[in-house]
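Course assignment 3, question 2. Fill in each field.
Student: A.L.
Task: Predict the tertiary structure for the chain below.
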Amino acid sequence: MSELGKTETQPSTARLDAAQPTAEATAMAAALDEVFAFANRSDAPGMVVGVAQRGRIIYRRGFGLANVALGVANTPATLMRIGSTSKHFTCLAALLLAEEGRLDVDAAARTYLPELPQRTVDPTLRQLMTHTSGYRCHVDLSSLSDGLAVQPRGAGLATMVRQSESNFEPGESQLYCNGGYHLLSLAIERASGMRFEQFMQERIFGPLGMVDTASVPCDFRIHRGLATLHVPQPAELGGGWRLGVFPSEEILGEGAMVATVDDMLRWLAHLRGPKTVGSAESWRQMLSTATLNNGLQSVYSLGLMQHLYRGVKVIHHAGAVVGGSCQMLTVPDHELDIVLMANGLEASMPSLANKVVDAVLGDAALAAAEARVAGARFQPMLGACYRDPGSGMVVGFAETPEGQLGLSLFNRPPVALRDEGDLLRIGFEDLAAGPFVVETSALATEGAPPAHLRFSEAGCASQLELIAGTPPGVEEAAPALVGRYHAADLGVDACLTLETEAGRRCLKLQTFGSIATPTVELLPLSSDVFALQGDLSPGAKARGVLCLVRESDGRITGFHVNSLRSRHVLFRRLAEA
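Answer field:
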């Protein structure tokens, strides 16, 4: 493994040196040791941390184990998967081809991938980069059809080609979409005439001296020095860990990179400073945030988030894989670069990166932390659930573990709402979707929750209806639902059954994928709306809602499954034999 500053191919513009041990440096190291003290153990997976300021390393440590089975410790030289932090590298790869006239990022994606279904307005490659294409996500869809069963090469494109519907028209909204980046990677392969992994190595990693970095398309592939991914196993199953394997043998620009903190710090120094790879125009585009058709200015540019944190501008992108996570963040005005990579540690990497910013810059350089709303302030809203029959949006209010008012979207865990006076908000940077906004005046502080709620997603306003009354029991709901269904966009059949499990009656939805047959439970929220609940596989909870499709006479002809990243996936009822 290379040591930072010792690699001959390292560009001088991205040089990083170790800080001299002064009293101030020692105090800073002690403060950061305190931030990461919880991870400092020898019996569990952990993380690797790298922090540099003004081109000098101020903190560089490994915590926990790279491999629990073998008792191998994490060190700064340990390779880790960085997941979706890979995305802006993919965007730069596309722009390098654009500089040479071999690819047009403003051309329709179908220019390079003609097998994609034609839409009223075909999304462009740039819209793939900014998550504004409207495409559904193949990873999300395959989890619905096959759980976390590993998809073979070619399955991602086949899933995207199969879609007859989309989440929205291009530019109308913004939803994080790994599928868009998978398509972008395939366009890069076709325009360059070489494998994606080879192009990244020859045109980006090599020239920048990122000697330990690579694009690795599958977790089954053995890669020297790479930490093992760990998924915590529930106590009822004996505790401990399972191996983490991402459900694809063809991970591309959506999240295939492995790297060391040294290489990533070198990259951040390049991102902020003089450029060795990419023209000034390419980097202008890299850092230009998207504007939606309705005029809303996003915080997302080309694979990078940009916004204020406690009054200072931050540029960052997180990553998550099965059994690992990452956060890469820079504070340009303070030349502060932070890289955190974990291989099963149960902690939020973005939150930890923010704590590093707090510790390094201090309160004197930072504004007050953003206010959150106490759940007790809107007590009547807790437990209330709303839906939009047209869009399929289902939201609920619940208290977070910290006692804050949280918004739950499509049966996901609640996310704390930011207090902006007249508005409460979840930003795109919080959930990689939205922003989601509700008006403070519309929420009840006493009495009953209102019958309707003004709600906005990505600048598009709608009025949600309260799901009122007591939901039916499963015995009551089952007779009209039990039967066989087919989802053409997933390429699967499914069945709804009423079963007895652990002494109780429950509704189960089972899909018959090409690889696996995952089953989830349906919990009634109303006579027409059901929450999906249960494990698709260890560590992968079902998150979504099922909304019935009825004819004018009340007959159920099918249902839609809606999740944060895939909307209106239709299951049509099949005639009984």
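Instructor remarks: The chain is about 20% helix and 30% strand. Confidence is low (pLDDT under 50) at residues 1-14.
Grade: pending
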